[in-house]
Design a protein that fits this description.
343 residues, alpha/beta, five-stranded parallel β-sheet, 16 strands, 30% helix, 19% strand
């Protein structure tokens, strides 16, 4: 690569040598790709404007898009926010370490560059043991959006990170395939009413059960941001998680989907539910069982990337059930730029 800044090392995340090197890079203000249980993250010192600028530069990401800060202890959290509220503590006790991000008013110590200019900060404690050790070793909270080029499907393997970021960062820590496969659930606790800003593995119903009150789902979960509207969490931008191929979500019966596929141009591929792929030509793959959100989320990003590898020009996707797989539906809506067809 002619524009390479680094010879990017790929090292197993369980290696003590790799974690020590990663912590050294983070303390020096460099950025490294790290495994988490959700997707791979591009990590830098959350308290350093220079490190955060390198994250945005490597990703090609707009700097008004807030970053999630990853921590390894509640003591680290206390430094980042004005106050840990009772509701926030309840959720942390139940779901951390795990795929939940909590937004609270930020402390003055957190740079505005990390929060995309907002006076709030999004924080989570990942459950990947190697990444928790890395944060402990570096002894700094790390900002870590997904470790991909901005707008592309999020990476769920070290190979995806290498494909997008080779030459742009010094180190990728390989922790294997991600368990969850889509980004964390994001909840804002900045007002009396808790608001879910991004759905994920942990649902609004699960959050409401712990808080003993309903959690409002933001309009931006199922709709594009209005003109001039600020993104209050990652993943709210109009088009996101998208392959180079055009994506269309198709809602309706399998028979209707087959008709739509059969009347599409030659470069069309299909993503369907497990067991349905046999109904199609070789230009189809299953992204999960129809009523199993976990199987869908684990595979969806890697399959969207594979569609580009296969040279797909158009990808038709069987629409997941919104009430069962809101996180997957949210990602596919943005991958398709809200292009949904009824059949």
């Amino acid at each position: 690569m002619t524009d390479s800044k680094f010879i990017t090392k790929l090292m197993p995340s369980k290696s003590d040598e790799a974690l020590s090197l990663g912590a050294e890079y983070l303390r020096k203000g460099e950025v490294v790709a790290i495994p988490t249980e959700t997707v791979y993250g591009l990590a830098g010192n959350a308290m350093s404007e220079g490190a955060v600028a390198k994250i945005y530069e490597a990703k090609g990401r707009p700097s008004d898009n807030p970053l999630i800060v990853h921590i390894s202890s509640l003591q680290m959290w206390e430094q980042l926010v004005e106050k840990i509220t009772d509701d926030a503590r309840l959720l942390a006790e139940k779901f951390w370490p795990g795929p939940l991000t909590i937004i609270l008013p930020k402390s003055e110590r957190v740079p505005m560059k990390t929060t995309g200019g907002l006076d709030t900060v999004a924080v989570r404690m990942p459950s990947h043991k190697d990444t928790l050790r890395l944060i402990e070793l570096s002894d700094i909270p790390i900002a870590a959006p997904s470790a991909n080029l901005s707008g592309l499907p999020s990476p769920t393997s070290a190979e995806h990170c290498m494909r997008d970021l080779e030459g742009k960062i010094p180190l990728i820590l390989d922790g294997g395939e991600c368990d969850v496969g889509i980004e964390s659930t994001i909840i804002s606790l900045c007002n009396d009413t808790p608001i879910l800003l991004r759905p994920g593995k942990i649902t609004a119903e699960q959050l409401g059960a712990v808080l003993k009150k309903p959690v409002k789902i933001s309009e931006a979960v199922l709709n594009p941001l209005k003109k001039g509207e600020k993104a209050f969490s990652p993943g709210m931008k109009y088009k996101h998680y998208s392959p180079k191929a055009k994506v269309i979500l198709v809602r309706g019966s399998l028979e209707g989907f087959k008709n739509r596929f059969n009347n599409s141009p030659k470069g069309t591929y299909a993503l369907v539910f497990k067991g349905e792929e046999e109904e199609f030509s070789q230009r189809a793959a299953a992204y999960g069982f129809e009523h199993d959100a976990d199987s869908q989320s684990k595979n969806i990003f890697s399959l969207l990337r594979r569609m580009d590898d296969l040279g797909a020009e158009l990808v038709l996707v069987r629409c997941p059930h919104e009430d069962e797989a809101l996180g997957v539906y949210n990602r596919l809506l943005r991958a398709a730029a809200f292009d949904v067809e009824e059949v």
